[in-house]
Amino acid sequence: MVMGKVKVYITNNQTEVKVPVGIRLLIRRCCTAVLNCEGFVHDAEVSVSFVNNERIRELNNQFRNLDKSTDVLSFPLGENGTYDLNNETGAYELGDIVISLETAVKQAQIYGHSLEREIGFLTVHSMLHLLGYDHETSKLEERKMREKEELILERLGISKNETYITTNV
User: Fold this and answer.
1) What is the Cα–Cα distance from 72 to 99, expressed in whole angstroms?
2) Strand partners, 99
3) Rounded to whole angstroms, how far apart are CA atoms 74 and 48?
4) Out of 82, 93, 155, 167, which residue is the most buried by the measure of CB atoms under 10 Å away?
């Protein structure tokens, strides 16, 4: 099976956290890995934006009626496997991913793993949402999504076991 090309548009709309070197490549690798895993063979486009906590709170309130900040939001452009086609590029427009870098940094510290692992997880998680997965519908769907996330992260070499920060005691 030949996979289509994936174009990932990444914009940094915040100044609170410096975007680490290599993060853009990591995000592109994560998006590609999800599409590979799902057998998505078409050309695809995805937009990823970095924002601060204040902006993600505004978006969460506006689109989900939740007046609180969160780590990532997904805005799928497709439904039931049907996506908008960009007539100029011939690629399917999967949707938008919005990541709060402030929250990603905090969560990486809380969970004791690298920022790369956290951003990788958030990207994979959000890509699965763009493809129709929803962990909020049932415990079974949540488990399926978690297992798929870990499988993809493991394939990328950023699984849980490989990215914990170890300290000498």
Assistant:
1) 4
2) 50, 72
3) 9
4) 93
